[in-house]
Amino acid sequence: MAGLPRSGSTLLSTLINQHPEAYSSASTPVFDMMANANQFIGNHELYKAEPKESAVYELMKSIPRSWYHDKTDKQVVVDKSRAWTNQFQYIEFGEFQTPILTCVRDLDEVIASFIRLVKKNPFKGEGKMNFIDRDVVLQGYDEINDHNRCLTLIGGTGVVGRHLNQLRDIYENKNQDKIHIIEYNDLVEDTQATMDKVFEAMKLDPVPIKKEGLKSIHAEKDAEIYGLEGMHTVKSKIEKTKEQPKELLGEEILKACEDTAIWRTK
User: Fold this and answer.
1) Rounded to 5 degrees, what angle do the CA atoms 183, 213, 198 make?
2) What are phi and psi for residue 66, nearest 5 degrees?
3) What domains are there in the chain, each with its CATH number?
4) CA-CA distance, 123 to 107, in Å (whole number)?
5) How far apart are the C-alpha atoms of 126 and 223, rounded to whole Å?
6) What would the 3-class secondary structure string for 154-217 be?
7) Dihedral sign, CA of 256, 104, 247, 118?
8) Which DSSP symbol is given to 237?
9) Sequential pLDDT tens for the chain (266 residues)
10) Contact present, 149 and 114 (Cβ < 8 Å)
């Protein structure tokens, strides 16, 4: 599972886990472990002296299977990491199946969702600075404010901008058949029909989806790791946020978010 942040991937995982034959993870380091192992081996002088490509392939396959050694009772396991979006080489290495479940959302809604989250977690010099403000500082801005937060998020190295660029690469390289797009608004407003299509993509029979009394089976340490308490919290009832992006974002940011929904391009 991959896609844009703040676009429903945590909710999607929670709904997938309602299926008795499926398991969907929290965000994992599986991709990074595979990529780091491949790079380490490929650069090692002893491997260069006598390469053994078949062994590398076996190692790549073993990493995800070892990570999910306790989920062998499930017919389908979904690994969640935004890094999967454009990494088809590692998908082949690990013998993962496509399409990649890819969550998307209008960019102004994504940015506004982050700003709302930051406002709920004001940094007072205690604990951990959230990763957005940290990136604002690293980008060299003189002041931490909502405008600079937005510019940092949508920039090419920002957590939103870089994943949007990965999606652009998918479409520019005509690999869209390898992803299954899930629009956030469809997931929230037409949940059952959207999940029926998700289960079809996973080659599973559909099941009735419960929309209330929801609770994630994962407990991610959002405040400790990201400085943003509630970043992966699932509401007990599926409902769309009523607050509009224009109430939080300036005109420059709203303009920058226009015409960025590459997944709707015919």
Assistant:
1) 30
2) -70, -40
3) 2-264 (3.40.50)
4) 25
5) 12
6) HCCCCCCHHHHHHHHHHHHCCCHHHEEEEEHHHHHHCHHHHHHHHHHHCCCCCCCCCCECCCCC
7) negative
8) B
9) 999 999 999 999 999 999 999 999 999 999 999 999 999 999 999 999 999 999 999 999 999 999 999 999 999 999 999 999 888 889 988 888 889 999 999 999 999 999 999 999 887 766 788 999 999 999 999 999 999 999 999 999 999 999 999 999 999 999 999 999 999 999 999 999 999 999 999 999 999 999 999 999 998 898 888 888 888 989 999 988 877 899 899 999 999 999 999 999 75
10) yes
How far apart CA 81 and CA 1 sit, in angstroms, is 6
Q: At what angle do helices 131-138 and 146-154 cross, to 10 degrees?
A: 80
Rounded distance, CA 147 to CA 195, Å?
A: 36
Backbone angles phi, psi at 168, to 5 degrees: -60, -40
Question: Cα dihedral sign for 74, 76, 79, 80?
Answer: negative
Q: pTM of whole model > 0.85?
A: yes
Element (H, E) at 48: helix 45-49
**DSSP secondary structure code for residue 153 in this structure:** H
- CA distances (Å), origin 252, targets 5, 140, 145, 150: 21, 20, 14, 10
C-alpha distances out from residue 153 to 15, 42, 112, Å = 28, 33, 11
* Tokens, residue 249: 């974002």
d(CA 79, CA 76): 10
